[in-house]
UniProtKB/TrEMBL annotation:
Signal peptide from the UniProt entry: 1-26
The name this protein goes by in its record: Proteinase inhibitor I78
Matching InterPro entries: Prot_inh_I78
TM stretches of this protein: none
Residue numbers spanned by region Disordered: 27-49
Listed Pfam families: Inhibitor_I78
Record keywords: Signal
Lineage: Bacteria, Pseudomonadati, Pseudomonadota, Alphaproteobacteria, Sphingomonadales
Endoplasmic reticulum keyword on record: no
Source organism of this protein record: Novosphingobium aromaticivorans (strain ATCC 700278 / DSM 12444 / CCUG 56034 / CIP 105152 / NBRC 16084 / F199)
Amino acid sequence: MKGRTVLKSSIGAALLCLPLITSAHARPAEEMGQRPTPPRTTGRPADPIAVTDTCGLRMAVRYSGTSATPKVREALVASVAHNRVRWIRPGTAITQDYRPDRLNIILDEDGRVMTMRCG
């Protein structure tokens, strides 16, 4: 019976200290003389298109999966409101310069729009 009493009193003492422990951690870091820790992020935005649309990607994304016929190309350029569009077929040599205002349209072997990105 004595062992149970010690156990109960140990648990009771621990429970009494719990508010003291949590209140020390609940104070802002500035009060404790520390710098606040920035929140952790995954490094990726939730919606990459919404963060920085420097090339008209939001307006062009509706053409994904379509054939890049002259009519579709003309409509896509009109929807992004600029002509800095690069059509890239498989095996096409392209420059590696990064231009955030340029829209890169990546096509498959059949000339369908597979994906697109700024740059």
